[in-house]
Amino acid sequence: MILKNLTHTLRFLLKQKNITITNIFGLSISLACALFILLWVEHELSYDNFHPDYKNLNRIEEEQYYSSAEPYHVNVTPYPSGPIWMSEIPEITAQCRVTFTGGLLFNYEDSKYFENGILAVDSSFFQMFGFELLHGDPDNILNEPGTMVISEEIAEKYFGKENAIGKTIKVDNSDLYTITGIVKKPPKNSIVRFDILFPWHFIESGPRYSDSWGNNSIYTFVSKQAGSVDTIVNRKITEVTNKYKEGNTIDFMLAPMSKIHLHSYFGYGKSPGAIIYVYIFSAIALFVLIIACINFMNLSTARSSIRAKEIGLRKVNGATRKSLIQQNFLESFIKTFIST
């Protein structure tokens, strides 16, 4: 029975070529548009979800108050803050400071390149984040001054197929840095992107480092205990800061790592962030699908007069209501399947 219905359906679709092609082509375009949009939405929603403990991973942000009653929101913190917050707040189990170093000149034998995408980080970087370390010990890497971790692309760029571990590169024509690890290039769905990592000592030994709690220049990421209340942790972070910064007028808060890409904001006024584009494009995808369905039904309705004679003849020959419904569903399924 199924084979008979399938044969009849294919024969009918081939007989009505113009209508069939129009229906399939229109539905194909609509499905392609909707699927591409939904793939983009899925990518946007997946940012930083690959970290092992991403649900408890946060970036500390600030609300700064000036003469205006409206706070000025920033995403950076003071240089010495991370270790002190972790030592004095039980809910914070780990911390990692992250900052860009700016472009630096790298020199190895005949290879000389000006590199960007360089971060200075605490040694807890690979314990907190889920970036894949290809070579090196994640528990001890980035502990010693004069060491660095490079991406596999940078390793191939300077050393080709040779093993880069243990080799040294001269940085800014002055200091030699030994490569102690090679990391896989961070995925595109991460807010933390880099090609080269230096230990935090690189910043502490440089001219830009400051012990002042009034110098907000770096990102501070923390892991908090599961189940801890964000508002309580926020209050404790501010209270600890008050001990080290006289006349502090800044409120501190946790920003969940998994929401930073779509919900982060900066400056006066709390903007919705990039999540608004996810809502807009999701609505567009839904609208395209609805239009495709309406168009599909309209074309089917337009053929009702053509099919009335056929249905009447099939009824005369003993076709039941159920079999006619099954036949129409089969036709719709075949066209949708081909379109997909």
Describe the structure.
This protein is α+β, with helices and mostly antiparallel strands. The protein contains eleven helices and 15 strands. It has helices at 2-15, 17-45, 81-88, 125-128, 152-159, 201-204, 230-244, 257-263, 275-302, 304-316, 321-339; strands spanning 57-64, 72-74, 77-78, 92-100, 104-108, 111-115, 118-121, 133-135, 147-151, 168-171, 175-183, 196-199, 216-224, 250-256, 267-268. The longest helix is centred in the N-terminal third of the chain and has 29 residues, at 17-45.
Brief descriptors of the model:
15-stranded mixed sheet, 2 domains, alpha+beta, 11 helices, elongated, single chain
Quick structural summary:
The protein is 44% helix and 23% strand.
* Number of H- or I-type helical stretches: 11
Low-confidence parts: none
Distance between the termini: 26 Å
Helix content: 40-55%
Largest sheet: 15 strands, mixed
Shape: elongated
Give the strand content: 15-25%
What is the count of structural domains? 2
Task: Compute the CA-based radius of gyration.
Answer: 30 Å
What is the chain-wise order of helices and strands?
A: HHEEEHEEEEHEEHEEEHEHEHEHHH
Overall residue-averaged pLDDT value: 87
Number of strands: 15
| Helix/strand/pairing category | alpha+beta
